[in-house]
Amino acid sequence: MTVTAKICGINSAVAMQTAVANGAGFVGLVFYPQSPRSITPGTAATLAALVPDGVTKVGLFVDPDNALLTRVLDEVPLDLLQLHGNETVDRCANIRNRFGRPVMKVIKVAALDDVGAASDYCDAVDWLMFDAKAPSSMPDALPGGNALPFDWTLLAGWSWPVPWMLAGGLDADNVATAVTKSGALVVDVSSGVESVPGKKDPTEIERFLEAVADL
Which of 2, 51, 159, 209 is buried most deeply by CB count within 10 Å? Predict the structure, then answer.
């Protein structure tokens, strides 16, 4: 079994270089101002220039309007648009058609019914991602990157006509268990490779990618 990793929320050249040098298949750039990982299109363009062919550049957006998508895509050659908000099926399809980029919809999971809802999106997107749904009691919760896992066994046995990623509370120490329980072939990490929120730790990026390479 070959498992691929996405390092998300990259906001420095060192983190980007570490990710691509150690085998990341996807790198994520965040365009959500409330996130400690958010960057400007100009910074993103500089970081994207460090990414070699064969590594997918992903832009993370939360309920973006067309103006934001246009502004970012005018500067940054993104390969995949990650929609991490409350985007409807129709909105996902509209973004994919209007901007001519593959789209990934994030499904936030707390229970089995949340997993079932993913099927509604399959005709409108190219990828799915399953992330932990933050509880309503969590103060200052972000749409993602909250270092929260969910019950990975909820994904076991499911299949969809599009590929999918697993996110939510992953790190070098638990990624093997997460893959075993969920069946994921692509894993996404952000807070799990940080020293503090928004600051990527190159050593932890290396550790995570080594753990994934060992699967």
Answer: 209
What are the domain boundaries of the chain? 4-213
Q: What is the pLDDT of residue 148?
A: 67
- 79 noted as active-site residue: no
Going through the chain in order, the beta strands assigned E by DSSP cover: 4-7, 26-30, 56-61, 80-83, 103-109, 127-132, 164-166, 186-189, 194-196, 199-200
Structure letter (DSSP) for residue 38? B
Sign of torsion over alpha carbons 58, 82, 119, 116? positive
Q: Does residue 8 have an active-site annotation?
A: yes
Could you give the CA distance from residue 102 to residue 164 in angstroms, rounded to a whole number? 13
Given the residues 74, 123, 131, 201, select the one marked as catalytic.
131
Identified catalytic residue from 8, 92, 171, 188: 8
**What digits encode the pLDDT tens for the residues 64-105?**
999 999 999 999 999 999 999 999 999 999 999 999 999 999
CATH fold, domain 4-213, is TIM Barrel (3.20.20)
Q: Helices marked H in 3-162 — which ranges?
A: 13-21, 41-48, 66-75, 89-99, 112-116
- The model's pLDDT over 26-62, given as tens digits with 9 standing for 90+, comes to 999 999 999 999 999 999 999 999 999 999 999 999 9
